[in-house]
Fold this protein.
Amino acid sequence: MGLRTPEQYKASLKDGREVYYRGERVPDVTTHPVIGVAVEHACIDYHMAEDPRYRDLAVVTDPQSSEPYSRYYYLPRNAEDLLQRSRLIAASTREGATLVVLIKEIGTDALFALHVVAEEMAKRGKPEYRERVQKYYQLCRDRDYGVAVAQSDVKGDRSLGPQGQEHPDYYLHVVDQRQDGIVVRGAKVHTSVSTNTDEVIVLPTRAMRAGDEAYAVAFALPIATKGLKLLASAYGGFKKDPFEFPISAQHKMMETLTVFDDVFVPWERVFMCGEVEAAGFLALTFVKFHRFTAVSYKLPLLELLAGSARAVAEYNGVESAGHIREKLTELAAYHATVQGLIIAAAHQHVVVPPGIAVPNTLLTNVAKYQFASNYHNAVQMVQDVSGGLLVTGPSVEDWRSEATGPYVRKYLGGKKGIPTEHRLRMLNLISDLTASDFGGYQEVLAVHAEGSLEAEKLQTYREYDFGAAAAYARELAGIK
Ligand SMILES: Cc1cc2nc3c(=O)[nH]c(=O)nc-3n(C[C@H](O)[C@H](O)[C@H](O)COP(=O)(O)OP(=O)(O)OC[C@H]3O[C@@H](n4cnc5c(N)ncnc54)[C@H](O)[C@@H]3O)c2cc1C
């Protein structure tokens, strides 16, 4: 068991992994001008484990060996475990200036789900998966690995499943079964943090049916595996000054198109192979944990929307105007609603074999839906309070130049007593958060990451007790 230092983590990424950025092979992700920012961002996790302010939250001790390990790997047993995990996720996202770190959050969501599904498969006469999952979990925990999750397939025609697509590789599938393992082909997409994790866990993205056996597959691989190619996302990618881009100059997350070009996976790393009836169960169980992670990491962002709107309203001298107070109230209620639902989801968890606490699925999906469906409206309110300087303001070079700086200082002040610099810094923060390439990224992340709006609505519909509600309505209507 052990905890790695940030330096050990970074050194582990120099392993010959096949990463491409804008068509070119990246020799070293840690020194790459764009991906390197994401690596430093991910280091937050390892820094927090060393930081006395966070040590108790970020690290747990194994009762048998007395060895410390990352709390992310702690299997939740009750509401308090879920809440501590949620607090850690929120605290690290706060350290990341509202951008989630994710190098262990998502991987452990998948590991929890794999434990649950492997237990179920053991009951159905396949105990080998349970042993493999446990061993793999211990490996990741003991080496303090960062683990990405590749669930989303490229999917081709969305109205079709794996069968009937223009070509068979739109969903990742097994192309060969050998004595020592399987060979897989296909591509996953939107795979977060994979440029800078040690491992990737691959899960099915949907329920499967008879005939889909080759697609019902789950496994894990080191990122530096022959045939595994990562095509990194291209958004942003220019050097940013922290004065102008206070968040995105120093915080970044990479996603990849993750290509499996006939990749060999040894059996000890295969967690599902052909069990079509379990594919949907695994996909959904992962999502149950992952949406709880999602709403947990949204909290600093929602606090920042409310806080920055309040601050800029004051700097603009409009904090007492009726419509501004109304908008601030809505932003506060937005934050408090999601926060309250997270706490309730943890308290109303269910414990499933092998003794893992699953956050309440209905409340988690309602929280995620509340967040996602209101995000653009919240951004609009913050932008409304801020004014148009979010996109028309002068640059950091203008601010620093002897020729132009004095004009910027003189003309872009706000309320009496507020230094122009404070007003500009606040506007730059809001611009970075809502009107930059990073702001656009946040908006798409809000709508799609951890499942689209419709996916959350579907789960809400399925989980809500309409039977009881309709019975109550019938009773009041006098219908026996
Ligand atoms: C920033 C970011 C990070 C992400 N990180 C990860 C990650 O780490 N790992 C991972 O596996 N995934 C990740 N995702 C993927 C995320 O879960 C998907 O984006 C999401 O599930 C939507 O899938 P899609 O992008 O393919 O969109 P689509 O599925 O194409 O959705 C587009 C629209 O089509 C609708 N639609 C799709 N299928 C149907 C259908 N059959 N019938 C009717 N309507 C349909 C949807 O509801 C939506 O309105 C990430 C996404 C983002 C944006």
The two ends are 61 Å apart (CA to CA).
